[in-house]
Amino acid sequence: MQEISDLREETIVEYQAKTEKPPCCLQILCNNKYILVGTYDLNKNTGFRNGSIDIYEYPGLTLLHKIPTYGAILDLKISSHGDRSIMITAHSTGNLMVWKINYDISSFNVTEMLTLQANYQVFHSDTLITSCHFSPLEPQLVLCTATNGKTKLLRIDKTPCESTTRIVQDEKITSINALSCDTLESQHSLECWIGEFGKISPLTNVVFTGGDDSKLIAHDLRMKNEIWSNEGRIHQAGVVSIKASSETFRVSAPTSLITGSYDDHIRGFDLRMLGKDQIYPGKMPVLNMFEKGLHGGVWRLCESPKDMNRLLVCCMYNGAKIVEVESDKKTFEEMQYVKKGHDSMCYGGDWSSEFIATCSFYDNSLQVWHTL
Question: Where is 367: in which H helix or E strand?
Fold first, then answer.
């Protein structure tokens, strides 16, 4: 493993807080004043998992409110559509919760910031939803990946609905049937860890998924079937992060894809391999691929709000890093890193216009730092 002395000087952390339960994911609200943290706690005696949404105020990382949730939280996302007032949380009990964010903080207590709108039982209660994603084109279309290897697409309803209460593992859960739910035809043979919508042409009708089987699958969003899959030709271990080009990230390279793996490598490659109008079919080794070992599993990728070529990378057991994608040179350059306080699994991170927030699971650590 690369020694710390071989890297740039470690970035100084501005604020740090200890969470009560292990933090798994986080999002910064668009006003840069609050950080929403999803937690994941396993009761080793009962095997039951529960969690919470913790609301921290910046600066200072003061814990303002905690909302307990049935089922631990593995992922949470704030919609990028409209007023960014909708948030979803993915749970260890196979359900997806939809929350309304109240930004009018002048007239209410912080306990009223989040209102539960709906609770969809997407998978069976013994299945963990590993990631959730809003479609960049359809505000109510959501992608969910799961530990059973499957991926589902569902449409959420922003309007509060009539609910039914049923018993799961001797705990009450309020569940609502999804209005529409489709399972993608091809699935992973092991856990499906991550999904990603294609965001700009020619990939707007493509969904990518990555799993513990080292496979990257491209799915047709219209037909719900497989376009191609690639196993053992790109990644040497599970695929756990995917980043497609968008209007705000590497827009000049619309057919490029960035992936991260348990094999500690971040990779970049171009899907347009066989000509101007043809997309890589997945049945041969990738050409023009470049990669870099980051000495930690590349768990999450978050784009910079200011630089189209930079990513915040959560490197699991090797902290968090800022990495620049240099396609012309076919390299990734490490710009900054934070390791202290993130000695275990750095799973969650987000990058706002003012600061970066990252969290470390077994350290129960939430940290805020800045780019140089």
Answer: strand 365-369
Q: Which amino acid, one-letter code, is at 102?
A: N
The pLDDT-based confidence of 216 (bands split at 50, 70, 90) is: very high
Q: How far apart are CA 228 and CA 245, in angstroms?
A: 19
Q: Look up residue 271 and give its amino acid.
A: L
210 by DSSP, 3-state: which? strand
Structure tokens at 141: 């279309």
**Residues whose CB is less than 8 angstroms from the CB of residue 244 and which lie 6 or more positions away in sequence, other chains included:** 196, 197, 198, 199, 200, 203, 208, 256, 257, 258
Strands in 73-78's sheet, in edge-to-edge order, are: 73-78, 86-91, 95-101, 114-121
Longest CA–CA span in the chain (Å) reads 59
Q: How many CB atoms lie within 10 A of CB 14?
A: 15
DSSP-derived 3-state class of residue 124: coil
Bridge partner residues of 339 (DSSP): none
- Rounded to a whole number of angstroms, the CA Rg of the chain reads 20
Tell me the per-residue pLDDT of 297-323, one tens digit each, with 9 for 90 and over. 999 999 999 999 999 999 999 999 999
d(CA 11, CA 196): 30
Partners of 28 in the β-ladder? 35
C-alpha–C-alpha distance, residues 142 and 162, integer Å = 21
pLDDT exceeds 80 at position 287: no
Joined tokens for residue 27: 């999002």
Name the least confident of 155-164, 180-189, 263-272: 155-164
Tell me if the bond preceding 136 is cis, omega within 30° of 0: no
Is residue 3 predicted with pLDDT exceeding 90?
no
Cα 278 from Cα 282, distance rounded (Å): 12
Region of residue 158 (phi > 0: left; psi between -120 and 50: alpha; otherwise: beta): alpha
- Chain centroid to CA 346: 13
Q: Is the separation of the CB atoms in 132 and 144 below 8 Å?
A: yes
CB 332 within 8 A of CB 324: yes
CB 258 within 8 A of CB 298: no
* Structure confidence at residue 169 as a pLDDT band (50, 70, 90): very low
